[in-house]
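Exam revision sheet. Question 4 asks you to relate a sequence to its structure. Input first:
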Amino acid sequence: SFSNLISYCSALTPKFHQFLKTFSTITPPNHLQWTNRLDLLNNVLSQRSCTLTNLLVLTSIVEYSLGNLFLTQTGGITPPHLLRDLLMADTLTNLLGETTIFLLRVLLGSPNGINLRNLVWHGFPSEGDVSWLYRNFLVDMLNSIGGKLEELEFVVEFRSCLQDSKLLVGKMNLPLFDVSLLEDVVTSSSEIQRAGWLRSIALYKEEQFYCCVCMVLPQLEMFLRILYGGLYGRDFRAKIDQYYIIMDTIFEEFEAVTEARNRMHDYFRIDLLEAMYDLLSAIRGPRLRDKLSHGELQST
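Answer key, structure tokens:
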């Protein structure tokens, strides 16, 4: 289970978890402008959303913001696509110091650490599985980095994909969505992580659409992973020493080992699978899931 995985990770990094306990309160966050995500951070600080939602938002902000630092410091070089590679870059270590980068690697950027970013964005934890101490730590870390940048008089160059997202919405011509239909399915289903879906629906009703999509995408991935695992008799849980089932595997037309037709294509209508693939994973598609998880879309 996810709880067992977190316990194992905690045993690997006991000093870090002892250190986390010092973040029972958040230092007044006066140095967050460098993230260019004050609207989302204000939502996190208001504690209106659950801890899991906050961590999805915060991990994406951390990645986006560090990418901006890399871009600025290198004079325009595109940041590494993966957070773990970004945190291995000497560029950030030289700018922010070894201690800051090491702490971020332990929590977010290494499969040998807690690997929190990947775990939450791939849908493994439920709300009760993650501590609010992680939220406090990430907010304090962003605030601390902002203070250091102000001392250095470092001016950050921002990246934004806001225009891309507006064009996408304009072209999709979506019909009106009846949230009550989804609510009925969620409350009557035994095959999904109900709490996460109900939280997503609540965010939708509150018109917190950015946070809603942040919650929905990992829930959808986990549902598909559980279904795929059931069809093939594979364990859908996250493990330290094995690759887990990813979206690319779920959408492939033919199963990699046997080269037989993917059973998911018999379970769903092909046009539905293709629509999900085009929207979420296709290299030349909008890659909504990818851009959102890497912090490249704004909330307005």
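Marking note for examiners. The CA atoms of residues 168 and 286 lie 7 Å apart.
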